[in-house]
Write a structure and sequence with these properties.
Elements (H helix, E strand, L loop, with lengths): L1 H24 L15 E4 L2 E4 L4 E7 L2 E6 L5 H11 L6 E2 L4 E4 L5 H38 L5 H34 L2
Antiparallel strand pairs: 1-2, 3-4, 4-6, 5-6
Helix pairs in contact: 1-3, 1-4, 3-4
Length: about 180
């Protein structure tokens, strides 16, 4: 019974870390990646559709992303979606494809992106702590229902805290790596 609670806690805390990593992928570092446009949705015949599902998105070099829509009629919609997304560049439409030219990042921009990364990491820590609370509540319920002894309950709370500490440390580790990546010129 307690092992199920530990597994639940580990699984959900891991999911919080995975979500944070997905969020980190949308942040810009020194080199441009196509993940910057992953959250952009294009109005495709009335349905908000991810940009990479209406065209070919590639990073042609360290500062340029090229988007070639599968239907030329979508060029205007894609251009509008990119402008609405406010990713820091204006799309250049040449009639066949759209290019995004990202200027080199300034120190201020890098520091601003680090702040965003820290906010994402804090959100992940809150999610981990919420999972800890849920797991501890389940242990308390088992104690209350007399399914585990008070000593086992205490050990279970300690184990849940240990799992939580491991995941918080992992979040800090991933954040430090991302921060170094962002600040690297």
């Amino acid at each position: 019974m307690l092992n199920e609670i530990y597994d639940y806690a580990k699984e959900h805390m891991d999911k919080s870390i995975d979500a944070m990593k997905r969020d980190f992928a949308t942040l810009r570092t020194g080199k441009v990646t196509t993940t910057i446009v992953d959250n952009i949705k294009v109005d495709y015949y009335g349905t908000p559709t991810p940009l990479n599902q209406v065209g070919n998105v590639i990073a042609t070099d360290a500062t340029t992303i090229s988007i070639t829509p599968w239907e030329k009629s979508l060029l205007g919609d894609i251009e509008h979606a990119i402008q609405q997304a406010n990713i820091g560049v204006n799309p250049n439409n040449d009639g066949d494809f759209i290019k995004l030219f990202f200027p080199p990042m300034t120190v201020e921009q890098r520091q601003e992106i680090v702040k965003q990364a820290k906010a994402m990491a804090e959100k992940a820590k809150v999610a981990v702590r919420n999972v800890r609370k849920d797991a501890n509540d389940k242990v308390k319920k088992l104690e209350k229902d007399k399914e585990v002894s008070e000593d086992d309950g205490k050990r279970a709370h300690d184990q849940v805290q240990k799992i939580t500490d491991e995941h918080i440390a992992k979040i800090d580790e991933v954040l430090a790596a991302k921060e170094a990546d962002i600040l690297k010129v």
